[in-house]
Amino acid sequence: VSVALVAVVLATQVLAGWLALAVLAPDLSRRWTSALPRALLLGPLLVTLQLLAGDATGLPLSLPTLLAPWWALAALRAWRRRTRPQPERGPEVRGGAHAAALALAFALAGLSLGCGLLRPMLASDPLTNAGLVGRVVDTLGRLDATRLAALQAPAYVSYPPLIPLNEAALFRAAGGAWARGVMPFFALAHLALLLLLVEACFERLRPARALPLALLLLLVPAVAAGGATGYFDERFAGCVLLLGLTVRELDERADIGRVLLATAAAVACVLTKPHGLLVAGVAGALLGWLLVRGTLRARVALAGLALLAAGCALWPAFAAARGLRSPPDVTVHWPGAEVLAAGMGRALAFAARTALPPGASAWSTWGLAWPVLLALGLAGVLRRRTRGPAGMALAAAGLHLLGCAAAMAGMELDLQWSLEVGMSRWLLHVLPWAALAAAAGLEEQDGSLASA
Amino acid sequence: VRRALAALAGVALLAQALAVAPALREQVASALHARAAELAPETVPDTWQPDRLAARDLPTLLAEVPADARVLLVAGVSSPCFFDAWTLPRPLRVLQDVDEALLARAEREPGLRHVVAMWRRHLDRRELRLTPARLLRELPRHDVLLAFLHDDEAGLAAAAAGAGVTLRRRAAAGVATLYEVQRP
Known about the structure:
The structure holds two protein chains of two kinds.
Chain A: H1 2-24, H2 26-29, H3 32-56, H4 63-82, H5 95-118, H6 125-140, H7 145-149, H8 162-174, H9 178-181, H10 183-202, H11 207-218, H12 221-224, H13 233-250, H14 256-272, H15 276-293, H16 298-322, H17 337-355, H18 362-366, H19 369-382, H20 387-410, H21 415-441
Helix pairs in contact in A: 1-3, 1-4, 1-8, 3-8, 3-10, 3-14, 5-10, 5-11, 6-8, 10-11, 10-13, 13-14, 13-15, 13-21, 14-15, 14-16, 15-16, 15-20, 17-20, 17-21, 19-20, 19-21, 20-21
Chain B: H1 2-39, H2 49-62, E1 71-75, H3 84-87, E2 92-96, H4 100-107, H5 113-126, H6 132-138, E3 144-148, H7 153-163, E4 166-173, E5 176-182
Helix pairs in contact in B: 6-7
């Protein structure tokens, strides 16, 4: 029973994401290759907002109340679709190369699912940052501040709520097997990241160029061997890539739906990890730049920026209202400018040593990914036609990395320890920008896939 | 030029495949090790052994304990352990018999220094260290006592007598024993 219930909760998360996508970007919701990864990333965001709204109004966690609205909406939509003519769908899998890349993505996600099921969530950051809060919500039905404050194990109770609240629903569904039942959630996030990486390559490149780039990205050790430990970085990187892909599309389709989709991706980052605020900053800068450049109408851009600001303020306001405090060990203290600059310099130098050969850990974590992606991105900047997208992606990568370095230097932790423990994960968050820059660098001089 | 670029791409992909192979092997090996440690936590020691033992033994013992019972857990564990995850929704108080020499040894490891310092601060903030005075104070405030990797039954009984309560042994599973705290 619990396996079936877990499957229903996971399916509902996907369904919620797909329903939102159908409203924001109907064209993307009609092709499974673009709909599935987006639904996997957006669904948990909507479930989070639903559970926060329920918690704020005193509604305890209950699976029927959580799941029924989405299935009712889906039924309504299915009924309406029967009575309306549907637009023709384009090809979903574009040839053998695309199929091969998708097959590799599914194989890697399958591996992470299998490995995840063998190692249930028992300790460490997955429980500190989310699992314990998820268990409180699962067993008590709400974000009970008193009980959260009374937890005996180290618990980061003001950590953004997307993972703990979605985990709470899965814990409730899995019953006694909660520690294992939650693991597919992470494998599905891994799948979303891998599918979006394939899309980043195949959407605009000829298969002969897209396949090598896709293989290079899918075979990055830090990317391929993820999704099995209950960490949130794959979901986070997937949301960053969704933001980047959507901003890339805004050049061609600057509609309100795409802007809201980009905003939703950034808000999903904000509600997934504290570092999401950096992504929101990058998203705000990109929307502002598109507004200044005239790609976006003022009203549309301002709507996106306002929603982004609201998304950033939501959890801090909720946590403050509930009295949920971050542990003293992770408080950002912002040292003086000189110390901060020196710390940022150390962090950036460490990032370069970690990512670029002949760094000791570069090969085992990234392979050749960073030098190749940066070279392709820079090549894109040098070419006139691709200068815009490649430059934008590289600028976003630089901005994001600078933000990471500033956050690391500003945290009240041992900086060297933070760098050694966290840098590879922070670089995984920045990798999507480099992937988009490289894809832009490989674009044909005369334009799109259609011309190829 | 095209052939040269294609050859270069081929070499790069081969190199990438060589880089990813150990990572995937490590992922599978680590998952298999975790499974083996879960099936036999006492024979396959690993970093999370106390958590694996807690996952194995606590749900069995707590199955019959009411959801509102106040649980005192005395553990012979020096490292962080996520007991709350298994005792929720019951209110929990943990007292850990911390081996200071072990922590001092761990603190000398460069990679662990910071983690141990954080753990020490957490122990102090939460008053988690097992001391006779804390045990005397906490025993009468709780409905059940769980002894986890802590086999000093005589010491617990003496502390209970000192606190004016008695302990009735209700069940045991693996490395954990459940006592009912009976007030006069």
